């Protein structure tokens, strides 16, 4: 009988899934700035950016205003003796709010609040001398612009105070405190009771990221990804969003689920058309819904033999507490009979069973609707975080949840049925919203303190324009000193004996050999001229085993000769005598294009009997020993020079080469008259080296050499101590731990081999100081080299959400929170940005020098670039280019990434020669 009568209130799972999907759509609408105004679910940002992590502490005053009573509290979080470890201690006093203040002016209400606070402080001997942080729980819908700024949207719960709507509530409170006088308090946070509930439960359970109120009213909040919250600037991290879900359905989206009883409730309320969901589920209305059902059934003769008492006709005669009593497991029927008798009815045993069933259906529908909306929130969190399964805790408060005997169990069961992939735990808030407000304040203080300490740690990495100008002038001084003959310079300025860049007439087949790291590459390059000028390129890559890298020089060059032999076999060209270029990416002193004396090994090479020897001669001897093929080695070039030549083939204005990868270096076309190291080479010898003369401008004739490419080896800048004022203690540690302490100081600030290690040292320091990873220093974090530079590129990518940052950190054995991920991303950003700016300052010195060499008002030039840092890091290239523009405003510099790298460049140098 009852089931048939109330069939519209019985919701099956398909309907709940449908309601859940509708609620999710409303959430998206509320989060978007385009549709928020029209959304029934307001999704208000709270500016609460973190749940407790367990390290919060301090003493706070708290005010709790949200019902007929008002509370003032002193909350101690881990302060003083007698508090259990990790606990919170509260002293409180309740102050009644006179009825007339609920309809009076806002100044009267807030003056009463301020006077109550003053009374509490006096009574508890809380010193007025010292500034006290204050947390304010204000359980009415507010639009927040900051944690301690929020304007009232509308009153609820019988409050109709005049003059506060659209005004800043915190500012109003501050003015009332000032009027009262004698108190030094700072209002740090204003929060909704839902948010406070989440924070209270979050203090004891780190998985708690949802707050739920099920009492006189209903609401929910949760931690949303900031990138989805349009109404707040920024996209890093999370923010608690107060859904104000009681308004779900105000736009008609629940009309097909409303019964005649819901419509009657709404029509008789003081806000018709508003808070649709709240009127279907909350404690203020459940008893009244049951009364309206019983009244209709009685009128139809389905109950009490058609008798309707005056009490049953009276609004509010059945309360939600009565509904809970009627559904008690053992005494439910007895309670039902007593309640009905109290309404001047004479129920039969069948009537009592039917009425109890009505109560069950009404309250069951409530828990089903709450479960559907909660499932939408949990499902959104899971999707945001790209998780297949998720463990999460929901903090709950409110009289319906606390006092209704069956409600929690029903709610839990339906949520778990709708979301089998989520492990959901429900935790009851034990000390209400005041503790939560204090914890919001404590978290805000912790974050502010941590923010300050992190900022102080990263401050030395943030270079000013003045500092960058200093680096530019020191690089310029290093370039000038290196060009001179006398004394040793930190910037080596090695002549390359490459006198000109390609002019497009190059043609023929050339072999290029490229040794720069753990791989050796052999290339056959075929240049074709004509209208369809193009290049054919074949290559093979060979690994250099560690035992050969660190064996004898003879073994190393024999291995290279064997690789060349294999490549010539592969290409079927064993008998052709080809001109070859040898890219050798280690510092070499050259006295001609085809001689290069190794200054020192880098990048893990330690082959004996090579340093101080001509590497071209060593390769020629290895080829002779093999006696299988013949090569004409025309040129030995550095990878930087090879890169410049490769790009100059595409763009004739390319006269600078830059490597920004594992290592860093630059070469450029310098005026020969400035290179004192080559003064002992006769003009005739130079002419032989360069053939037909120089194609560049500045009045050169065909038989006059004016420029030569110089390999700066700029990574050595600072080896003379000239960068000491910008290096940080972390750079010092990386330098000390390196294989060449005191050398290549500029390279150690700017190149891929070292950036990850600098980041690791910063993270280690922040963790030791308790600012990261809950202060837990893992073995992984102590392992040198574990934080590779590729992780910087991944972490700093704009397409990578914080969740993926956490996943990268987990691969490294670092379990961090969302807040930890933000800080790690900031550290990576500070280190890589500084690297790009320093490279930009160095490049500004180079281009300005070229401009002045050529006596030009404005220089237009192209830089050929190679290296993973430049090509793969999401921001490095942009910051580098911005810095050059800012520090060398009279130079128009284009950066051209090298397609084929230095191998093709070596072939081009051979072709040009």
From TrEMBL:
Residue ranges of the TM segments: none
Record-annotated Hexokinase N-terminal domain positions: 2-202, 454-649
Keyword list, A-Z: ATP-binding, Cytoplasm, Glycolysis, Kinase, Membrane, Mitochondrion, Nucleotide-binding, Repeat, Transferase
Top-tier EC class: transferase
Membrane topology summary: Peripheral membrane protein
GO BP: glucose metabolic process; glycolytic process; intracellular glucose homeostasis
CC per GO annotation: cytosol; mitochondrial membrane
Segments of this protein annotated with the region Disordered: 680-704
Annotated metabolic or biological route of this protein: Carbohydrate degradation; glycolysis; D-glyceraldehyde 3-phosphate and glycerone phosphate from D-glucose: step 1/4; Carbohydrate metabolism; hexose metabolism
Record GO terms (molecular function): ATP binding; D-glucose binding; fructokinase activity; glucokinase activity
Reactions catalysed, as given in the entry: a D-hexose + ATP = a D-hexose 6-phosphate + ADP + H(+); D-glucose + ATP = D-glucose 6-phosphate + ADP + H(+)
Domain Hexokinase C-terminal: 210-443, 655-912
Main location as per UniProt: cytoplasm
Biased composition (Basic and acidic residues): 680-697
Signal peptide range: none
Subcellular location(s) per record: Cytoplasm; Mitochondrion membrane
Family: Belongs to the hexokinase family.
UniProt-recorded name of the protein: Hexokinase-3
Organism field: Tetraodon nigroviridis
Organism ancestry: Eukaryota, Metazoa, Chordata, Craniata, Vertebrata
